[in-house]
């Protein structure tokens, strides 16, 4: 296809050149001819031969910089770090100087009384106590330091320790009573026999902290009575101070 194009272009050039030749042969002075058509781009040439190896380059060393730069400004304060592990306990310090004498203690007799706590009270009325209510024992037999309150029917602990509480009830009907400490029931005591006057009793050892209160409280059955010949009694005393 490329060969045919060259043939056509050659024919056209021959047609254009022949008149010009005729004119030039006929006339003394001619006119410039028409520029020819640009030829096609030629093909790339072959690779040249490999050149010789050049000389090695020279390594130039620059001057050394300063060994240490100037000290910079302090940075901003960082956040506190986590607490590290505790160190080993240090050695015992030197004993301090002896303190001055303390205040005189209480008289031995007075201190002994302060560690005592006991009461024994009686109920001498023939009327039954109120249902589901505290029982008041109004007749005082023993009441050290007035720890038992005959108005409220409650014993208030002044000396912390272990106490023993006991009751003896004269009853004419079914009877159920609770021993309470600060509104917490400690133990119920009940007797369901009827139709005969009798006595029932119960007791319990209880630990009390300072200012805790203990009392007896009725439930549905409240057949406790008292007469001149037979009281109902409530007692308590300190077994061991803590």
UniProtKB/TrEMBL annotation:
<feature type="compositionally biased region" description="Basic and acidic residues">
    <location>
        <begin position="43"/>
        <end position="53"/>
    </location>
</feature>
<feature type="region of interest" description="Disordered">
    <location>
        <begin position="31"/>
        <end position="124"/>
    </location>
</feature>
<feature type="domain" description="C1q">
    <location>
        <begin position="112"/>
        <end position="242"/>
    </location>
</feature>
<dbReference type="Pfam" id="PF00386">
    <property type="entry name" value="C1q"/>
</dbReference>
<keyword id="KW-0272">Extracellular matrix</keyword>
<protein>
    <submittedName>
        <fullName>Complement C1q subcomponent subunit C-like</fullName>
    </submittedName>
</protein>
<dbReference type="InterPro" id="IPR050392">
    <property type="entry name" value="Collagen/C1q_domain"/>
</dbReference>
<dbReference type="InterPro" id="IPR001073">
    <property type="entry name" value="C1q_dom"/>
</dbReference>
<feature type="signal peptide">
    <location>
        <begin position="1"/>
        <end position="22"/>
    </location>
</feature>
<keyword id="KW-0732">Signal</keyword>
<keyword id="KW-0964">Secreted</keyword>
<dbReference type="InterPro" id="IPR008983">
    <property type="entry name" value="Tumour_necrosis_fac-like_dom"/>
</dbReference>
